[in-house]
Specification:
Length: 93
């Protein structure tokens, strides 16, 4: 899957509330009411990522979870990243 242009990424991000372009990746930080709820979300993301065979970088800071998506083999953001971000948004608690 080919790396997207900045313009294509920005267009795709218009459909993803709270996601932003950061270097060669897209990212979003979620805040949950408690650590257990944050971990439940991380586990749900892990299941979605495994199904998509596309795995985000996940940073857990107590109740905050930051997801960063990039297609490392392509050196940047691809449609695969936008698709997984959209699926996370649709299926998160």
């Amino acid at each position: 899957m080919a790396k997207l242009t900045t313009e294509a990424i920005q267009e795709g991000l218009k459909k993803l509330q709270g996601w932003s372009l950061s270097g060669e990746a897209i990212s979003k930080t979620y805040t949950w009411p408690s650590f257990p709820e944050a971990m439940k979300f991380v586990n749900q993301v892990a299941d979605l990522a495994e199904q998509a065979d596309h795995h985000p970088d996940i940073l857990i800071n107590y109740r905050r979870v930051t997801l960063t998506l990039s297609t490392h083999s392509e050196g940047g953001t691809t449609q695969k990243d936008l698709d997984l971000a959209a699926r996370i948004e649709r299926e998160r608690m």
